[in-house]
Every structure is written in structure tokens, then in C-alpha cells.
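Q: Convert this sequence to C-alpha cells.
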Amino acid sequence: MKKIVYPGTFDPIHRGHLDIAKRASKLFDELIFAVADNATKKPLFTVDERVELIQKSTQDFPNVRAMSTNKLIVEVAKNENACALIRGLRHVSDFEFEFQMAMMNYHLDPEITTIFMMPDEKYIHLNSTVIKEVTKLGGDLTDYVSKDVYNALKIKYSI
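A:
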């Protein structure tokens, strides 16, 4: 059984993340979202809320699940018997950071491969910070996040 881990903060998950997850889940038997439990990033949503929003947003994906972690991602992959990590690349500017992380992960565990995937071009401009800012200012994001995420954002910002 081939498993892949999709690590990230996912604060919140958006359709760019979901596009990558949907396509990667067709290539692997199981895709596991590994939600970073890192308070230093000061996320809007708690780690449990982020995991729940991923579960709700991926309920139609039969081989996808979500978990939280505060461990090295290669340790998570090893513990889950995953052979790879999936990371999204939107722009060339993403590459430098992602390349550094991939090389460090390879150094930590050469058995875990990092795979890069670009989202559909209609989501290339998305990131969670933009999603939060647009929501805070009253913008309509129904094309970019699931209904559950949109409602959770509106509650957080009292809209």
C-alpha cells in the first residue's frame, strides 16, 4: 500500500490544497494530511479545528485522512509507513524554500521522497493568508474554500 503525507499548517485549507490532494490521492492508496501543531505561527484556527475542516472538506475523497503532529514530518511519514511527501508549488518563489525543506528531509530520511505538484492555475494565487484577509474584509470566497471553511472563517471574524 503506497501512502503519501501532505504536511502543512492549513490555516485554513483552501481549494488549492484540495486540488493537489485530490490529484495526489489518485496516485497513491492513501493520502494523509499532517497538520502542523506549531503555536509559534499563531494560527487563526486551533489544530483540532484545522483537522476537522480538512475532514469536512475531504469527505468525498475515500482515501484521505487528516491528523495533527508536532513532530518532524519525516518521522510522521515513517510512522505512517508512507513513502513520500507531497508539497504544492504555486510560483517560482516557492521553490527555494521547498527545495531546502526537501533536501533537509532527504538528509533526515533518504527513504522518504518529496514530490512537488502545482495546483490548477485558477488556484495559483491562493494562500491561507490571502484567504483570511479577504474574509476579514468581507470578500466573497465561495469559489476558493469549502462551505464549512467559509462559515468557520465568518464565525472567527464575526461576520
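The chain is about 40% helix and 20% strand.
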